[in-house]
Amino acid sequence: MQAVAEPLRQKHYNATVIDRHDVTEDLFRIRVRPDRGLPKFSPGQYVAMGMGFWEPRVQPSQFEEVPENKLEKLILRAYSISCPLLDPSDRLVTCADLDYLEFYIALVRGADDSEAPPPALTPRLFGLSRGDRLFLAAKITGTYTLAGVEANDTVLMISTGTGEAPHNAMTAELLRRGHRGKVVNLTTVRYRRDLGYVREHQSLMRQFSNYRYLSLTTREPENLDPQCPAYVGRQYVQDLIKRGELASMVDDALSPENTHVYLCGNPAMIGFVPPGGAPLLQPGVLTLLQQAGFTRADAGCGHVRFEKYW
Length: 310
Known about the structure:
The chain is α/β, with parallel strands linked by helices. Helices cover 21% and strands 26% of the residues. The chain has two domains: 2-141, Translation factors (Elongation Factor Tu (Ef-tu), domain 3); 154-308, Nucleotide-binding domain of ferredoxin-NADP reductase (FNR) module (Rossmann fold, 3-Layer(aba) Sandwich), CATH 3.40.50.80.
């Protein structure tokens, strides 16, 4: 297979892995440098990344039978661009300072739905090491950006899991600009070990008085075991919003009059229901914010933007 794979790699691949940091066995930060250099782009945007069906998959992962007519084709998926946030000296760094792109990716070993095809790309991406090659699209695009945010506005970013990626790029950009309003970055994960940028966020909070990083967990002992001395139950941002606790935690009214909201991650957290879709059992953040006066319609304060990761 190697004899077949190498010519295909030379034909299709145009970028190199320059670094890989494993947060956990199933979660990594990976840095990719395109051969052609980087175009200008806005924090929050995404790009297509790919590998060939001919590449091996990490194991264990769901069995995959690749049809012969696909064996020489690329698997392409869009990934939001993250940001390392700090340089080796713990100084703020933005995407514009870099000659590579950083991605924050979770390994999906199998499909939740028995009728769905097995995950094709991440089991191959997780086989990459420094120096390996892959495909990166030339165009970076997307409307999930900081357009319309003014220097004194509050910016509230809410994510689940790797949905934190575009918010990291936005956070770095806002802090570099000298943003004067509050910048709040809240993420929810299953376990604390899944917080892939926690050290960087803690350093930024020490450096910038208007920056707040908050993390919630759902599967730690204090989330599941009522006998745990620190028991708080499962933590979801929807509950914090409904009880008014989120505003208290960040010491800001989070009013639609001066706040921009960004939601990225699990559709259940966002609460977006497409036309004709089944109603949600519990309201998502989007519904709760709309009830509080926020809107999806405008680009100014009170606007909610969202990206679904699922």
